[in-house]
Amino acid sequence: MMRRIIPVENGSLTISLELDGVRVQAIPGESLAGMMFARGVGIFRWTSGGKPRAPYCAMGTCFECRVEVRRVGQEPVVARACMTPVEDGMVVNTVAPREKL
Amino acid sequence: MSKADWDVAVVGGGLVGAASAYYLSKRGARVLLLERRELNGQASGQNAGSLHFQIEQRLVSHGEAMTRQAATILPLILDAIERWRGITAELGETDLDVVQHGGLMVAETPQQVATLERKLKLETQGGLPTRIIDGEELRSLAPYLSNSVLAATYCAVEGHGNPRLITAALARGAARQGTAIRTWTTVTGLRREEGCWRIETENSDGSVRREYASTILNAAGAWARELAALAGVHLPVFPVALTMNATDAAPPFIPLLIQHVGRRLSLKQMREGNLLIGGGWPSRFERDRNGLVTTRAAYPRMESIYGNMAVALDVVPAVARRTLLRSWTGIVGITADQLPLLGEVPEAPGFFVATGGSAFTLGLTYAAQIAELIDSGRTPLDIDIYGPRRFGHLNAYMG
Amino acid sequence: MENSVDIAIIGAGPGGLAASETCARFGASVTVIDEQSAPGGQIYRQAPENLRQRAEGFGIAYVDGVAKANAVASISAIEWRLGHAVWNVLTPQRTQSEAFLISTVTDDGLSEIEAKRVIVATGCYDMPVPFPGWTLPGVMGAGAIQALMKGQRVVPGKKIVLAGSHPLLLIIAEQMLAFGERPAAVVFSQPMWRAGRLLSRPGVAVSFAEPLAQAARAYAKLLRAGVPVIFSGAVLRADGNDRVESVTLAHLNPATGLPQPDNTREISCDAVGIGFGFTASSELVRLAGAATRWSRTGGGWIAVHDGEMRSTVANLYVAGEVAGIGGAKTAAAEGALAALSALRDAGYGVDAAELRRARSNCRRNRAFAALLQELADPGDELLRALRDEGTVICRCEEITKGQVEELLGQNPFLGTSNALKLLGRTGMGACQGRYCSRSVLELISSATGRGVEDIGQFTARPPVKPVPIHHFGGGVRD
Ligand SMILES: Cc1cc2nc3c(=O)[nH]c(=O)nc-3n(C[C@H](O)[C@H](O)[C@H](O)COP(=O)(O)OP(=O)(O)OC[C@H]3O[C@@H](n4cnc5c(N)ncnc54)[C@H](O)[C@@H]3O)c2cc1C
Ligand SMILES: Cc1cc2nc3c(=O)[nH]c(=O)nc-3n(C[C@H](O)[C@H](O)[C@H](O)COP(=O)(O)OP(=O)(O)OC[C@H]3O[C@@H](n4cnc5c(N)ncnc54)[C@H](O)[C@@H]3O)c2cc1C
Ligand code: FES
Question: d(Cα B70, Cα B159) in Å, to the nearest integer?
């Protein structure tokens, strides 16, 4: 399974956000994809054809890592997990098939 | 018997050309369809796909006289409603993504509501089933509309076609009926010779060809003026570049076509979930020493992208949750008086034209009328006022 | 116009960084834009502060490169726009002014940059190669696995198979080892003797001793660690239930280089990195109206440029992978040269000797790049053989090879990428066609016999990276 390749001290997990309804701690500056991989999340979204998808390029070109992100005081938008840094108070949802608007 | 190889040579492989070829070959004509590049490569494949039957915003917002003139188009619209309803089955296709679930033209100010009422009167006189709705009824019909919308006219048969699919399906239908289709073939010369038209063409591989047709149908869209000039006549059709936008796919939530009576907006959700957002926002042509370059794609103006998104956000707030996936441009031909241009050019016998704005909504109708006119010399609808005769003053000294 | 900078540089990889440094040295006003939050590009991708430990695991060149990137980043004369994705570029002709208009989007909104000259150094991405199962979670570009390690210090699996034809696979595997991650297998499609044959060409071994030694060291390390390094092999398919669980490995016929269906075996794994090479990120170049040309082994559609990195659009320059895949050193050499020509065109006193040196530096590096391209080339026949009817070609719109072929059959007049996109939706999704354009081109070509240049590419349209629409409610900030 996916995981960190260096030890991470609990003290550095200073960001607090919500992932699929669960409160999680994250490292400042890491991407949503990094945080999700470190927590073992394997599926980031489902296609409208009902197929699971996860990061393919990890560098912002494939758009397979799209998740729904709500930053404090903003509308929820669909964003690339690999290019979006974690933020305090963020609400992140992996995207279900034909998600409810 | 003349030496014509073809009864009709249709020039232009957009919706109007492909549909004309379809209707003409269905009537038994020997048809040649000539397209400079690829089928559906221009306006017919780039447009918003709105089947808008209510009188258009651009027509109602230019004064009473224009509005009344616009109302003369209603018989064509009534024809289009039925044609779109039947086209999928007629072509033997299963799904061309033609949707006629209804459409709203919204108003956000009292003045705009007044315009809606004026427009409604004309439509009612012309037999178009439209009515004005507001309050609870409007909210329950279209809960996604912003509170800024005061009222809307509702037309139950509006909707959208799919610009990606219809022209290709018409071309397949035409080909099945024997139409010869040549793409990458530009018409470079037209000359009246012994009672028929000599057509010179140039293929993209450099080869040239000369053949003969009894009749030419100019379906060259924004390039209709240039094509007419090859035949030695003036047709005042001007290229206009417009911008379109698509969002990422959303779950279905907008079944209706949304238009605005006072601002530039058209919005609809396609089968795959994407929202198409347009409404007549301008693009720019490249320019060179010869003026506008209409042979390359125009490019969107930033003001158009910003402006169009802003209107969409105002009218349908949930658009804020989408991402703008793509903005593109298309080139449409508009006549000097904004009316369709439909008929034979009196100064050039055997040279017909079918073009005009909104030729997606009305394209099938234009094509059916012109096919019948070419074949039988008559049309079921009175299209005389749309004839090239009205520009006869331009051609009086040509020849 | 008063607000416009002399030179804007898009991309802060080795190419863009070398260009920025050169521009700053001449005192030009320069803005560097990159979507990433730190400079370095792909090869010197940086981790956030709390995840920077053990950077030496990526090798000394990485540590040096990052240090260099940060040194450039501290040059106070350069204005940085990091975290800015460029989504549109309009040329002066199109803005009807003296300046380019560059539109960017950040997490916070939209902004615009005006510049008299622009250097595009947007790099590349893993070349997409469709095969059955390539859309399964866990299957990714080989470069992606490296990017996750460098940028986030995570790996996408415990049993990772690296497969393809690019020597970079060796480097990635070696870097994994440095972090105690042992790849399940490294699979090359080439026979082992292919490298040897290239190296035996006169002059090659001497001129390119350093990178060759690096690859050889990595290979030896893998063997010592007991990592199976397989030649003449290819991953035929990936299988699993919502995630890759195994791949089927085929032995390639040494004569034809094609898979032998009766000579396969299954390897259990939980992630796969596919590395057959790279595709240039040339979309901004195309959007600005500059010419590109097809390079089968050198990155797909790459920017056309003159001997001094000028594109075909006035005052638009290119550098690095976007001008043809060539690696970090080539990118840096071209970045410097692009900057020198931009500076000279802008009237700065650029020494002729310096320009000459920069030119010959580029030439030398391009010679190595050409060799690397030849070495890494899997051959189109192999890539074609990897996809079957049901293989997804367009990941975004979920369109299979079979569906594309059916459309081409039903519509004999389809002859360009744009027309197929319109009718079949391939290329209409969020990736803007980056991941299907090559396959689409090949499928049209085999169906119609038309040439690559005639089939063309999808017209580049803004936004090259999708923009959240709520930002348009807020207008533009400077
Ligand atoms: C962005 C945009 C949005 C629009 N939205 C709508 C809408 O929602 N609803 C609606 O009703 N209408 C809409 N329109 C208008 C509509 O798209 C057009 O009126 C219609 O598609 C015109 O069809 P056509 O076949 O006449 O022209 P085209 O589709 O442009 O076809 C003309 C063809 O002629 C070819 N040609 C030109 N010269 C030659 C030559 N010398 N030799 C050979 N071939 C030649 C061209 O290559 C072209 O393919 C929109 C237009 C645009 C641009
Ligand atoms: C995932 C990956 C891993 C690689 N690893 C190695 C390696 O280990 N060793 C090696 O020798 N080579 C590696 N390469 C090849 C590598 O690309 C080059 O060696 C080198 O990084 C090229 O430099 P460059 O300046 O041309 O482009 P890059 O380094 O790719 O820099 C381009 C920059 O442009 C930015 N950018 C692109 N588009 C936009 C936009 N629209 N808006 C804003 N910013 C944008 C990107 O974020 C990126 O930072 C890798 C390539 C990839 C794709
Ligand atoms: S993984 Fe490709 S865009 Fe994020």
Answer: 20
Query: How much is the average pLDDT of B360-373?
Result: 98
Q: What is the pLDDT of residues A10-51, one digit of tens each?
A: 889 999 999 999 999 999 999 999 999 999 999 999 998 899
Mean of all residue pLDDT scores within chain A = 92
Is A54:A2 a contact under the CB 8 Å cutoff?
no
Q: What is the mean pLDDT of each run of 10 residues along chain C (478 residues)?
A: 86 98 97 97 96 95 97 96 98 94 95 97 98 98 98 97 97 97 97 82 78 89 97 97 97 92 94 98 97 97 98 98 97 98 97 97 93 93 96 98 97 95 96 97 96 96 95 69
Spatial distance between the Cα atoms of C248 and C246, rounded to a whole number of angstroms:
7
In ligand 1, which atom is closest to the CA atom of B329? 1
CA distance C317 to chain B (A): 21
Check if A64 contacts B (Cβ < 8 Å). Answer: no
The CATH class of B99-158+238-335 is alpha beta
The answer, yes or no, to whether residue B213 has pLDDT greater than 60, is yes
C201 vs B16, residue with greater confidence: B16
Q: Which CATH architecture has domain A14-100?
A: Roll (3.10)
The answer to whether B23 and B367 are in contact (CB under 8 A) is: yes
Q: Tell me which CATH homologous superfamily contains domain B6-45+164-236+337-395.
A: FAD/NAD(P)-binding domain (3.50.50.60)
Contacts of A83 in chain C (CB under 8 A): 35-36, 85
* Residues in chain A, total: 101
The alpha carbon of C123 and the centre of ligand 2 are apart by a number of angstroms equal to: 4
Closest by Cβ to A78, choosing from B272, B273, B323: B323
Please check whether residue B247 is in contact with residue B324, taking contact to mean a CB–CB distance below 8 angstroms: yes
Question: Model's pTM, two decimal places?
Answer: 0.96
Q: All domains of chain C, ordered by start, with CATH?
A: 5-125+278-374 (3.50.50.60), 128-275 (3.50.50.60), 387-455 (1.10.10.1100)
ipTM exceeds 0.90, yes or no: yes
The H-or-E segment that residue B22 falls in is: helix B15-26
Which C residues in the span 310-349 are in contact with A, Cβ-Cβ below 8 Å?
Answer: none
Interface partners of chain A (CB pairs < 8 Å, 3 or more) are B, C
Residue boundaries of the structural domains of chain B: 6-45+164-236+337-395, 99-158+238-335
| Residues 6 or more apart in contact with residue B158 via CB below 8 angstroms | B50, B51, B52, B53, B54, B100, B102, B103, B256, B257
